[in-house]
Write a structure and sequence with these properties.
Aldo/keto reductase, alpha/beta, binds NADP nicotinamide-adenine-dinucleotide phosphate, 286 residues, single chain, NADP_OxRdtase_dom, two-stranded antiparallel ribbon, TIM Barrel
Length: 286
């Protein structure tokens, strides 16, 4: 896998002037449920395979393990893209600032590439979407993160924070895979200039046994996982599959030597059935 992976332009320092867009590697490595020594092991293996974009979160409890793998890799900082996320109990300003400090200490970084609000918590008493976003802007303005964004935000959440602050999230990371293709939310993100990032891009493995994907994979002489990852890439999405198996890490990244036709893309699009493998954003509360 080349380190010159296709990348999406991402506007940095949203709402401020004089800054240049940089590019987020379109294919990254997910780390949900990879904890303890497994986190360091998996991220070390992923970096050795060639991944340069790692997705972690305060909630995953693995930032220190990710940080150890980054430090041990010897890979120059400018070649890495690291995303982390604000945990649900940390939305209030003091908690957010303190937990961001802990994230940076655990990751061993001076500057993070992307910090996301993990869940909107729109129905949680005492939590205000706009207040949380204002704190994220404060973190952005501190210069310790290159871009800020959100995760699991619905259109009304996006409009609320943008209207109140004038600062548009760089990214909206949402559950997105062939069984939940999120056409409408993707269109809203596009309209607002927000990059959509797919979490659980393989539907946590539940999409992999689909007979139509098996047919397409056989047609292309690739695996169903490769068909799915290619489908995300060709839709212009940022995609962060997770696996703890190095041979799957390699296979999941070996997706730049083939292309799905329009008909094959449409065949994957047609698999949508509104299946969520994770929580609905409106139901997640502290
Ligand atoms: N923002 C959010 O709210 C949110 C929520 C969920 C996830 N995420 C992020 O998105 C990342 C990806 O999502 P996810 O981990 O939930 O699910 P996923 O990447 O869709 O699927 C992971 C599952 O698929 C298996 N797998 C991966 N590659 C495979 C292959 N080539 N062949 C067969 N099986 C394969 C893995 O098993 P093995 O490990 O055993 O290979 C694991 O069980 C997370 O790790 C996390 O970073 C964000």
């Amino acid at each position: 896998m080349s380190t010159a992976l296709p990348a999406k332009a991402l506007t940095l320092r949203q709402g401020t002037s004089g800054t240049e867009p940089v590019a987020i590697p379109q294919l990254g490595f997910g780390t949900y449920k990879v904890t303890g020594p497994d986190a360091e092991r998996a991220v070390t293996a992923a970096l050795a395979v060639g991944y340069r974009h790692i997705d972690t979160a305060q909630m995953y409890g693995n930032e220190a393990g990710v940080g150890r793998a980054l430090a041990a890799s010897g890979i120059p900082r400018e070649q890495l893209w690291i995303t982390s996320k604000l945990n649900n109990p940390n939305h209030r300003r003091d908690d957010a600032l303190r937990s961001f400090d802990a994230t940076m200490a655990d990751l061993g970084l001076d500057v993070l590439d992307l910090f996301l609000v993990h869940w909107p918590l729109a129905a949680s008493p005492g939590i205000d979407l706009v207040d949380t976003w204002r704190t994220m802007i404060e973190i952005l303005n501190s210069g310790r993160v290159r871009a800020i964004g959100v995760s699991n935000y619905q259109p009304e959440h996006l409009h609320t924070i943008i209207d109140a602050t004038g600062v548009t999230p760089a990214v909206n990371q949402i559950e997105l895979h062939p069984y939940l293709n999120q056409t409408e939310l993707r269109a809203v993100d596009d309209e607002l200039g927000i990059i959509t990032e797919s979490w659980s891009p393989l539907g946590r493995g539940r999409v992999l046994d689909d007979p139509e994907l098996a047919r397409l994979a056989a047609e292309m002489d690739v695996t169903p996982a490769q068909v799915i990852i290619r489908w995300h890439l060709q839709h212009g999405l940022v995609v962060i599959p997770k696996t703890t198996h190095p041979e799957r890490m390699r296979a999941n990244a070996d997706v730049f030597g083939f292309e799905l036709t329009d008909a094959q893309m449409a065949a994957v699009d047609a698999l949508d059935r509104g299946l969520r493998t994770g929580s609905h954003p409106d139901r997640v509360q502290i």
